[in-house]
Specification:
By secondary structure, the chain is mainly alpha-helical. It has a single domain, classed as Four Helix Bundle (Hemerythrin (Met), subunit A). It contains 4 helices and no strands. 21% of the residues are buried. The structure holds protoporphyrin IX containing FE. The site of protoporphyrin IX containing FE (HEM) has 26 residues, from helix 1, helix 2 and helix 3.
Length: 146
C-alpha cells in the first residue's frame, strides 16, 4: 500500500510539472501578446490545480507513514531526515498555497491580460519552489527517477 502511494507520488510529479509548464508558458505568451483568457486556458489551470491537490493528499498520507519522516526527536543536523521532514513538506506546502491563491484570485479577474499576468507569476514562483523541493536522485537523497 505504502509502496503504491510512493510510486504514485513519485510519477505524479512529471504530470504536475508538465501541466504547470503548459500553464506558465501559455499565460506568459498570452499576457505578452494581450490575448483572451479562453475556456482551454481555464481547463489546464484547473487540471494543474487538481493534480497539485492530489499530490498534497498522497503527500499527507506519506508524511504520517513514511520511515523518512522523523516526527519525534528530529536531528536537524541530519541532512536526509531534515529534508523529508521539513524542507520537502514545507516547500511543497508553500507552492501548493501559491497555486491555490493564484487560481482563486485569477477567477475573480475579468480582464484577460491581467488574469494571464497573475496566473504566470503565481504558477511560476510555485514551480521554482517545487523544483527546488523535489528529492531528485542527483541531490543524494537516494531516490529514483520514477
Ligand atoms: C505537490 C508537490 C509535491 C511533489 C511534486 C512531490 C514529489 C515527491 C517526490 C518526487 C518524492 C520522492 C518519492 C520516491 O522517491 O519514492 C516525494 C517523497 C515524499 N513526499 Fe512529496 N511531493 C509533493 C508534495 C508533498 C507534500 C505536500 C507532502 C507532505 C504533506 C509530501 C510528503 C512526502 C514524503 C513524506 C515523501 C517520502 C516518501 C518516502 O519515500 O517514504 N510531499 N515527494
Amino acid at each position: 500500500m505504502l509502496t503504491g502511494f510512493k510510486h504514485l507520488h513519485s510519477s505524479n510529479r512529471y504530470v504536475l510539472l508538465a501541466l504547470l509548464l503548459i500553464v506558465i508558458v501559455t499565460s506568459f505568451m498570452k499576457w505578452q501578446g494581450k490575448k483572451e483568457y479562453t475556456k482551454q486556458d481555464d481547463k489546464f489551470n484547473l487540471l494543474a490545480f487538481i493534480f497539485t491537490h492530489v499530490q498534497l493528499l498522497i503527500g499527507i498520507v506519506l508524511f504520517f507513514t513514511s520511515s523518512r519522516v522523523v516526527l519525534k526527536g528530529l536531528d536537524m543536523s541530519d541532512k536526509y531526515d531534515r529534508f523529508f521532514t521539513i524542507e520537502h513538506t514545507l516547500g511543497m506546502l508553500i507552492a501548493i498555497v501559491l497555486i491555490t491563491i493564484g487560481r482563486i484570485k485569477g477567477k475573480k479577474i475579468i480582464d484577460s491580460v491581467k488574469r494571464h499576468k497573475l496566473t504566470f507569476w503565481y504558477f511560476f514562483i510555485a514551480l521554482v519552489i517545487m523544483i527546488a523541493s523535489i528529492p531528485w536522485p542527483f541531490r543524494g537523497f537516494g531516490n529514483e527517477w520514477m
